[in-house]
Design goal:
274 residues, Rossmann fold, binds NADP nicotinamide-adenine-dinucleotide phosphate
Length: 274
Protein backbone atom coordinates (compact mmCIF):
# COMPACT_ATOMS: atom_id res chain seq x y z
CA UNK A 1 0.00 0.00 0.00
CA UNK A 2 1.63 3.27 -1.08
CA UNK A 3 1.13 6.90 -0.09
CA UNK A 4 -1.91 8.21 -2.03
CA UNK A 5 -1.02 9.99 -5.29
CA UNK A 6 -0.72 13.75 -4.79
CA UNK A 7 -3.62 15.95 -5.90
CA UNK A 8 -4.07 19.73 -6.01
CA UNK A 9 -6.23 19.74 -2.86
CA UNK A 10 -4.41 17.02 -0.97
CA UNK A 11 -1.79 17.73 1.66
CA UNK A 12 0.49 15.95 4.10
CA UNK A 13 -0.02 17.28 7.63
CA UNK A 14 3.27 17.05 9.54
CA UNK A 15 3.36 17.85 13.26
CA UNK A 16 6.58 18.88 14.95
CA UNK A 17 7.68 20.38 11.63
CA UNK A 18 9.54 23.33 13.16
CA UNK A 19 12.71 21.29 13.76
CA UNK A 20 14.42 17.91 13.74
CA UNK A 21 12.76 14.82 12.31
CA UNK A 22 9.47 16.56 11.44
CA UNK A 23 11.18 19.29 9.39
CA UNK A 24 13.17 16.63 7.52
CA UNK A 25 10.10 14.49 6.84
CA UNK A 26 8.42 17.59 5.39
CA UNK A 27 11.51 18.13 3.18
CA UNK A 28 11.39 14.53 1.88
CA UNK A 29 7.65 14.77 1.15
CA UNK A 30 8.06 18.13 -0.64
CA UNK A 31 11.00 16.76 -2.67
CA UNK A 32 8.63 14.01 -3.84
CA UNK A 33 6.07 16.55 -5.04
CA UNK A 34 3.70 16.50 -2.06
CA UNK A 35 1.99 19.52 -0.59
CA UNK A 36 2.66 19.90 3.12
CA UNK A 37 0.83 21.50 6.05
CA UNK A 38 3.31 22.31 8.79
CA UNK A 39 2.24 22.26 12.46
CA UNK A 40 4.16 23.25 15.62
CA UNK A 41 4.26 26.22 17.99
CA UNK A 42 7.27 28.16 16.62
CA UNK A 43 5.63 29.96 13.72
CA UNK A 44 8.75 31.74 12.35
CA UNK A 45 10.53 28.38 11.89
CA UNK A 46 7.47 26.92 10.14
CA UNK A 47 7.26 29.99 7.86
CA UNK A 48 10.88 29.81 6.83
CA UNK A 49 10.59 26.05 6.10
CA UNK A 50 7.38 26.65 4.10
CA UNK A 51 9.15 29.35 2.02
CA UNK A 52 12.10 27.01 1.42
CA UNK A 53 9.90 24.09 0.34
CA UNK A 54 7.51 26.02 -1.88
CA UNK A 55 10.30 27.92 -3.67
CA UNK A 56 12.59 24.88 -4.08
CA UNK A 57 10.01 22.25 -5.00
CA UNK A 58 7.04 24.26 -6.35
CA UNK A 59 4.65 22.62 -3.91
CA UNK A 60 2.04 24.25 -1.67
CA UNK A 61 3.27 24.58 1.93
CA UNK A 62 0.74 25.76 4.51
CA UNK A 63 1.69 26.94 7.99
CA UNK A 64 -0.62 26.12 10.88
CA UNK A 65 0.86 27.21 14.22
CA UNK A 66 -0.72 25.23 17.06
CA UNK A 67 0.02 23.98 20.55
CA UNK A 68 -0.93 20.33 20.21
CA UNK A 69 -1.45 19.91 23.95
CA UNK A 70 -4.56 22.09 23.56
CA UNK A 71 -7.67 20.11 22.43
CA UNK A 72 -9.27 23.25 20.91
CA UNK A 73 -6.13 23.97 18.90
CA UNK A 74 -6.23 20.39 17.57
CA UNK A 75 -9.88 20.56 16.49
CA UNK A 76 -9.19 24.04 15.11
CA UNK A 77 -6.77 22.46 12.63
CA UNK A 78 -9.64 20.51 11.03
CA UNK A 79 -11.66 23.70 10.43
CA UNK A 80 -8.63 25.67 9.28
CA UNK A 81 -7.62 23.03 6.71
CA UNK A 82 -11.20 22.69 5.44
CA UNK A 83 -11.42 26.49 5.17
CA UNK A 84 -8.29 26.47 2.99
CA UNK A 85 -9.88 23.76 0.79
CA UNK A 86 -7.32 21.14 1.80
CA UNK A 87 -7.79 17.41 2.28
CA UNK A 88 -5.37 15.54 4.55
CA UNK A 89 -4.29 12.32 2.79
CA UNK A 90 -1.12 11.88 4.84
CA UNK A 91 -0.99 12.47 8.60
CA UNK A 92 2.43 12.51 10.28
CA UNK A 93 2.09 12.61 14.08
CA UNK A 94 5.68 13.42 14.92
CA UNK A 95 5.63 16.22 17.53
CA UNK A 96 6.92 15.01 20.85
CA UNK A 97 9.26 15.53 23.76
CA UNK A 98 10.74 13.80 26.76
CA UNK A 99 11.32 14.65 30.37
CA UNK A 100 14.47 13.31 32.04
CA UNK A 101 15.26 11.90 35.47
CA UNK A 102 13.59 9.70 38.08
CA UNK A 103 9.88 10.14 38.73
CA UNK A 104 10.56 10.94 42.40
CA UNK A 105 12.33 14.16 41.25
CA UNK A 106 9.82 14.94 38.45
CA UNK A 107 8.07 18.23 37.79
CA UNK A 108 4.37 17.38 37.76
CA UNK A 109 3.33 19.84 35.04
CA UNK A 110 6.21 18.78 32.77
CA UNK A 111 5.21 15.12 33.09
CA UNK A 112 1.58 15.87 32.26
CA UNK A 113 2.59 18.13 29.36
CA UNK A 114 4.61 15.22 27.92
CA UNK A 115 1.65 12.84 28.18
CA UNK A 116 -0.57 15.41 26.44
CA UNK A 117 1.88 15.98 23.57
CA UNK A 118 3.15 12.39 23.12
CA UNK A 119 -0.05 10.42 23.74
CA UNK A 120 -3.21 12.53 23.93
CA UNK A 121 -2.39 14.58 20.83
CA UNK A 122 -1.51 11.48 18.75
CA UNK A 123 -4.80 9.81 19.67
CA UNK A 124 -6.84 12.95 19.08
CA UNK A 125 -5.23 13.70 15.70
CA UNK A 126 -5.99 10.13 14.59
CA UNK A 127 -9.59 10.47 15.83
CA UNK A 128 -9.93 13.80 14.00
CA UNK A 129 -8.32 12.89 10.67
CA UNK A 130 -8.76 9.13 10.01
CA UNK A 131 -12.57 9.23 9.51
CA UNK A 132 -12.07 11.34 6.35
CA UNK A 133 -9.35 8.99 5.12
CA UNK A 134 -11.56 5.94 5.78
CA UNK A 135 -14.52 7.44 3.94
CA UNK A 136 -12.33 8.39 0.94
CA UNK A 137 -10.64 4.97 1.21
CA UNK A 138 -7.21 6.54 0.85
CA UNK A 139 -4.64 7.73 3.31
CA UNK A 140 -1.39 7.09 5.16
CA UNK A 141 -0.63 7.71 8.83
CA UNK A 142 2.89 7.85 10.25
CA UNK A 143 3.22 8.01 14.04
CA UNK A 144 6.66 8.70 15.52
CA UNK A 145 7.34 6.33 18.41
CA UNK A 146 10.95 5.44 19.34
CA UNK A 147 13.17 2.44 20.06
CA UNK A 148 12.23 3.42 23.65
CA UNK A 149 8.91 1.72 22.80
CA UNK A 150 10.51 -1.74 22.94
CA UNK A 151 11.47 -1.83 26.63
CA UNK A 152 10.76 0.19 29.79
CA UNK A 153 13.18 3.10 30.12
CA UNK A 154 14.30 4.00 33.66
CA UNK A 155 15.43 7.64 33.63
CA UNK A 156 12.68 8.43 31.10
CA UNK A 157 9.91 6.23 32.51
CA UNK A 158 7.00 8.35 31.27
CA UNK A 159 8.56 8.87 27.85
CA UNK A 160 9.24 5.14 27.30
CA UNK A 161 5.66 4.37 28.28
CA UNK A 162 4.33 7.09 25.94
CA UNK A 163 6.24 5.62 23.02
CA UNK A 164 5.16 2.04 23.89
CA UNK A 165 1.62 3.41 23.76
CA UNK A 166 2.23 5.01 20.34
CA UNK A 167 3.65 1.76 18.95
CA UNK A 168 0.82 -0.42 20.29
CA UNK A 169 -1.83 2.10 19.22
CA UNK A 170 -0.37 2.40 15.71
CA UNK A 171 -0.28 -1.37 15.16
CA UNK A 172 -3.89 -1.77 16.31
CA UNK A 173 -5.03 1.22 14.25
CA UNK A 174 -3.28 -0.29 11.25
CA UNK A 175 -5.36 -3.48 11.54
CA UNK A 176 -8.57 -1.41 11.82
CA UNK A 177 -7.80 0.84 8.86
CA UNK A 178 -6.26 -1.65 6.45
CA UNK A 179 -9.63 -2.99 5.22
CA UNK A 180 -10.69 0.57 4.30
CA UNK A 181 -7.54 1.30 2.31
CA UNK A 182 -5.62 3.38 4.88
CA UNK A 183 -2.09 2.47 5.95
CA UNK A 184 -0.50 3.10 9.36
CA UNK A 185 3.24 3.02 10.07
CA UNK A 186 5.10 3.46 13.36
CA UNK A 187 8.48 5.15 13.08
CA UNK A 188 10.87 3.97 15.83
CA UNK A 189 14.13 5.94 15.65
CA UNK A 190 17.06 5.35 17.94
CA UNK A 191 19.14 8.40 18.91
CA UNK A 192 19.17 11.29 16.42
CA UNK A 193 20.88 14.68 16.77
CA UNK A 194 17.95 17.18 16.83
CA UNK A 195 16.56 19.68 19.33
CA UNK A 196 15.20 16.70 21.32
CA UNK A 197 18.11 16.22 23.76
CA UNK A 198 18.39 19.90 24.57
CA UNK A 199 14.62 20.17 25.13
CA UNK A 200 14.86 17.22 27.53
CA UNK A 201 17.78 18.83 29.38
CA UNK A 202 20.45 16.35 28.32
CA UNK A 203 23.81 17.45 26.91
CA UNK A 204 25.24 16.03 23.68
CA UNK A 205 28.23 14.69 25.68
CA UNK A 206 26.00 12.83 28.15
CA UNK A 207 23.92 11.38 25.32
CA UNK A 208 27.00 10.35 23.33
CA UNK A 209 28.47 8.60 26.40
CA UNK A 210 25.26 6.71 27.15
CA UNK A 211 24.59 5.52 23.60
CA UNK A 212 27.23 4.01 21.27
CA UNK A 213 28.09 6.01 18.16
CA UNK A 214 26.85 3.22 15.90
CA UNK A 215 23.27 3.80 17.10
CA UNK A 216 23.16 7.46 16.02
CA UNK A 217 21.48 7.93 12.62
CA UNK A 218 21.55 11.26 10.72
CA UNK A 219 18.19 13.02 10.74
CA UNK A 220 18.00 13.05 6.92
CA UNK A 221 18.39 9.21 6.85
CA UNK A 222 15.68 8.83 9.51
CA UNK A 223 13.26 10.99 7.49
CA UNK A 224 13.98 9.17 4.23
CA UNK A 225 13.50 5.77 5.90
CA UNK A 226 10.24 7.03 7.43
CA UNK A 227 8.74 8.19 4.13
CA UNK A 228 10.02 5.13 2.23
CA UNK A 229 8.54 2.86 4.92
CA UNK A 230 5.21 4.68 4.80
CA UNK A 231 5.25 4.46 0.98
CA UNK A 232 5.84 0.70 1.15
CA UNK A 233 3.07 0.26 3.71
CA UNK A 234 5.45 -1.00 6.41
CA UNK A 235 4.06 -1.52 9.92
CA UNK A 236 7.23 -0.48 11.78
CA UNK A 237 10.31 1.42 10.58
CA UNK A 238 13.49 1.30 12.71
CA UNK A 239 16.22 3.34 10.98
CA UNK A 240 19.76 1.91 11.30
CA UNK A 241 20.93 -1.71 11.58
CA UNK A 242 22.27 -1.28 15.14
CA UNK A 243 18.88 0.01 16.27
CA UNK A 244 17.07 -2.90 14.61
CA UNK A 245 19.37 -5.34 16.41
CA UNK A 246 18.96 -3.41 19.68
CA UNK A 247 15.16 -3.40 19.36
CA UNK A 248 15.16 -7.16 18.75
CA UNK A 249 17.42 -7.74 21.77
CA UNK A 250 15.29 -5.45 23.97
CA UNK A 251 12.21 -7.53 23.19
CA UNK A 252 13.87 -10.92 23.69
CA UNK A 253 16.60 -10.48 26.34
CA UNK A 254 15.71 -11.13 30.01
CA UNK A 255 14.02 -8.00 31.30
CA UNK A 256 15.73 -7.70 34.72
CA UNK A 257 19.36 -7.48 33.49
CA UNK A 258 18.36 -5.19 30.58
CA UNK A 259 16.63 -2.72 32.89
CA UNK A 260 19.52 -2.77 35.40
CA UNK A 261 21.97 -2.00 32.58
CA UNK A 262 19.80 0.84 31.21
CA UNK A 263 19.37 2.32 34.71
CA UNK A 264 23.15 2.19 35.32
CA UNK A 265 23.98 3.96 32.04
CA UNK A 266 21.13 6.48 31.86
CA UNK A 267 22.43 10.07 32.29
CA UNK A 268 19.07 11.11 33.77
CA UNK A 269 19.74 8.82 36.74
CA UNK A 270 23.25 10.06 37.48
CA UNK A 271 23.51 11.73 40.91
CA UNK A 272 22.77 15.48 40.64
CA UNK A 273 25.95 17.49 39.89
CA UNK A 274 27.12 19.67 42.81
N1 LIG B 1 15.88 12.81 18.53
C1 LIG B 1 15.81 11.59 19.01
O1 LIG B 1 16.83 11.02 19.49
C2 LIG B 1 14.51 10.82 18.94
C3 LIG B 1 14.57 9.41 19.07
C4 LIG B 1 13.38 8.68 18.99
C5 LIG B 1 12.18 9.34 18.81
N2 LIG B 1 12.15 10.71 18.70
C6 LIG B 1 10.85 11.34 18.51
O2 LIG B 1 10.89 12.09 17.33
C7 LIG B 1 9.89 13.12 17.38
C8 LIG B 1 10.52 14.43 16.90
O3 LIG B 1 11.55 14.80 17.79
P1 LIG B 1 12.90 15.45 17.30
O4 LIG B 1 13.98 14.52 17.61
O5 LIG B 1 12.78 15.94 15.91
O6 LIG B 1 13.03 16.65 18.33
P2 LIG B 1 12.82 18.24 18.16
O7 LIG B 1 13.79 18.75 17.16
O8 LIG B 1 12.85 18.78 19.54
O9 LIG B 1 11.36 18.35 17.56
C9 LIG B 1 10.20 18.24 18.37
C10 LIG B 1 9.07 18.88 17.61
O10 LIG B 1 7.86 18.72 18.38
C11 LIG B 1 7.21 19.97 18.43
N3 LIG B 1 6.40 20.10 19.63
C12 LIG B 1 6.76 19.83 20.91
N4 LIG B 1 5.76 20.14 21.74
C13 LIG B 1 4.75 20.60 20.97
C14 LIG B 1 3.46 21.11 21.24
N5 LIG B 1 2.97 21.21 22.50
N6 LIG B 1 2.68 21.53 20.21
C15 LIG B 1 3.15 21.45 18.95
N7 LIG B 1 4.35 20.98 18.62
C16 LIG B 1 5.15 20.57 19.63
C17 LIG B 1 8.35 21.01 18.40
O11 LIG B 1 7.87 22.25 17.87
P3 LIG B 1 7.65 23.61 18.69
O12 LIG B 1 8.62 23.63 19.83
O13 LIG B 1 7.87 24.66 17.66
O14 LIG B 1 6.21 23.53 19.13
C18 LIG B 1 9.29 20.37 17.39
O15 LIG B 1 8.92 20.71 16.08
C19 LIG B 1 9.39 13.14 18.81
O16 LIG B 1 8.14 12.48 18.87
C20 LIG B 1 10.43 12.34 19.58
O17 LIG B 1 9.89 11.72 20.70
C21 LIG B 1 13.30 11.45 18.76
Amino acid sequence: MTIPAPGPRSTCLVTGASSGIGAEIARVLARRGRNVALVARREPLLRSLADELSSTHGIRADVLPADLTDPDARSGLVDELAGRGLVVDVLVNNAGLSTMGPVYRADRSAELNMIRADVEAVVDMCVLFTPGMASRRRGSVLNTASTAAFQPLPGQSGYGACKAFVLSYSLALRAELRPVGVSVTALCPGPVHTGFGEAAGITDDDAAQALPKVMWVPVSDVARAAVDGMDRGRDVVIPGLANRVGAFAARHAPRGPVLSLVARKHPGLAPPRP
